[in-house]
Amino acid sequence: MHDESPHFADAVITTQTGVDTAKETQSLGPFDIPATIEKPEDVQDELLIEIYRQMALLREFDRRSVRLQRAGRIGTYPPLEGQEACQVASTLALRKADYVVPTYRDYGAMMVHGMPMEHILMYWNGRPEGAVIPQDVHVFPLAVPIATQLPHAAGLAWAAKLQGRDEVSLAFFGDGASSEGDFHEAMNFAAVFKLPVVFFCQNNQYAISVPLSRQTATETIAEKAAAYGVTGVRIPGWDAVAVYRAVRDAVVRASRGEGPTLIEALTYRYGPHTTSDDPTKYRPLSEAESWRERDPVETLRQDLNRYRLWDDAKEAELQEWIHETIQAALAKMESLGPVNPLELFDHVYAKLPSHLERAKAEFLTELSHEQTKGDAQ
Amino acid sequence: MTEMTLVQAVNDALRTALQSDDRVILLGEDIGKNGGVFRATEGLQARFGEQRVVDTPLAEAGIIGTSVGLAAGGMKPIPEIQFMGFIYPGFEQIVSHVARLRMRSRSRFTAPMVIRVPYGGRIRAPELHSESTETFFAHTPGLTVVTPSNPYDAKGLLLSAVQSDDPVIFLEPMHIYRSFRQSVPEEPYIVPIGSAQIVKPGRDVTVITWGAMVRDVLDATAKVEATRGIEVEVIDLRTLAPWDEETVFASVNKTGRAVIVHEAVLNLGLGAELAARISEECVLQLEAPVTRVGGLNVPVPLFQLEDLHAPTHARIQRGIDKVLDF
Ligand SMILES: Cc1ncc(C[n+]2csc(CCOP(=O)(O)OP(=O)(O)O)c2C)c(N)n1
Ligand SMILES: [Mg+2]
Known about the structure:
The complex is a heterodimer of chains A (about 375) and B (about 325).
Chain A: H1 8-16, H2 45-70, H3 84-91, E1 99-101, H4 107-112, H5 117-124, H6 149-162, E2 169-174, H7 181-192, E3 197-203, E4 206-207, E5 210-211, H8 212-215, H9 225-228, E6 231-236, H10 240-255, E7 261-266, H11 285-292, H12 296-306, H13 312-334, H14 354-376
Parallel strand pairs in A: 1-2, 2-3, 3-7, 6-7
Antiparallel strand pairs in A: 4-5
Chain B: E1 2-4, H1 6-20, E2 24-28, H2 44-48, E3 53-55, H3 60-72, E4 76-80, H4 91-98, H5 101-104, E5 114-119, H6 134-138, E6 144-146, H7 151-163, E7 168-173, E8 182-184, E9 197-200, E10 205-209, H8 213-228, E11 232-236, E12 239-241, H9 245-255, E13 258-265, H10 270-281, E14 291-295, H11 306-309, H12 313-324
Parallel strand pairs in B: 2-3, 2-4, 5-7, 6-7, 10-11, 10-13, 13-14
Antiparallel strand pairs in B: 1-8, 6-12, 9-11
GO molecular function, one term (chain B): oxidoreductase activity
Pfam families (chain B): Transket_pyr (PF02779), Transketolase_C (PF02780)
Cofactor (chain B): thiamine diphosphate
């Protein structure tokens, strides 16, 4: 076809190529739910305190886990320090029957919703026992491939809806995950079928080394909701009360049959992507320091002090409880003997097929051979 | 000559490719500023700029899909997939388009590209970071699949792949990324695609393997040789598709015994195809049924058990004993 029309497309392309480096760090705000200033009237004192206790526990757990990795007592570990409000205040807005659908970094949310701490440690220590989720705990296995858990959350919500159970799915994901097809497909399904699901994006500004400006040309992640007919909300992710309110309201809407919500919480991981990562390669240290000025745990503790709900004695007591809780979980992990190699064959099928029965028997003979040889040496 | 690790040799080959051909473009997650999670692209963005060493959005379908268009449009893309376990969002693009563009357009369009993929286990990595699913690609007509077992081959094979008229899946064994150094020429050179290498000659048994397993096989066979007074011929296949039938058949016709060792699960691993072809072609010379030693037929476990999932030295030795004692 001979086309005489001006090349509009070319003009668009030239203005859009390359990344706007001036926009490397994204501006904060505006938010749909502002950071808290006044003592919240819609959040009970006990709950505020519980949010703080869990956040403080998570912070210490996280720091301890990093040290355990450095000492070779667990494997590669993805720290979350800086994202405590996102994981704790969100999950405390759930009812027990609601589902947490996490990624590798969301062990905080998993623990708050009932996953035993020692299992989290065992998982990062490469042990199959770490994958065990107690029967009554509505937590899905953490997903490692990016964004793949998001359609699962929509499916869980769909099953609940079809079977008349009032269960909302809360799915966590990162800013980087918003680039994967699975994110878009999950949002679309959730909206088309009006599913009771909440997509909670912890926008910590980076996908490993890649800044948000490389993931999307839009100003926010929340605005993507509009394209799917999903409610989009943007919140300060360091503010526990804002996080709590956003999830609470989204769960209420979902449970009333009003459909899905996408929440974008602005946050930051102070540490490396995982213990194998070196963040100084891709961002200045000062950036983390500036985020620490609105540290979620510190902010909430100061607020609690201000509301006269907290004091030094309570803090000391809390720190003692935290220490004991983590010690107990660690002791449980370290009291385990070597992993039973036969576990390799467990849970692969409902019933082990005969070829694997034979392989397992052969494997057992081999192991005992090597055992006796080893003993003889 | 410079002493290099395998990952440094990859880096050196990429630098050479970028330098010698303006059409070469590297794209992937964290490959620019960060230099790749394994440092395979370290320093390349600083040297060649953001237009040629590109940090992409986190989307494998996007990375491979745009590489098809880039290649058809005259560029020479070298996409990186961060770990083999994360290639699947791009799998549709690989199977339906990368492998078939030539055939579907009767060679009007082609998609020569080199898809670099770290693979294999035994580095205590988290879940799904330890896969060896080379069969998926070797099974797909139109794809060439290559894997080096040492730094010299890494550079030479990668430069061959860049020159190929067809798409190449370039599998990098993470387990030996840094485990030893070797002299690697500074100037460009080629290790031809499609040719296996006899890494150790021998007359009694042929063991065929590739990637990180080559070193395990050499260690394991040394013990069998010492205890049994035999000689094992070890072949590094290097190109998994299309593989070097000539070298393999000649060796098995000489030794009369063949064992294939791979880290991928045994069931439908590439060993199955090799065993079938050897059985067809070397039947009159075979003294024993062809034997395979592979990963257990269960998913790769969390890392505490991963060394037992892969072929152990004891299992490799038993495979050799089996064909000797038949
Ligand atoms: C499909 C897929 N591609 C690549 C990876 C490797 N990878 C692991 S985490 C990560 C970055 C994720 O960033 P984001 O979604 O922002 O989450 P964050 O890690 O910041 O919590 C990448 C690229 C993966 N796990 N899965
Ligand atoms: Mg992120």
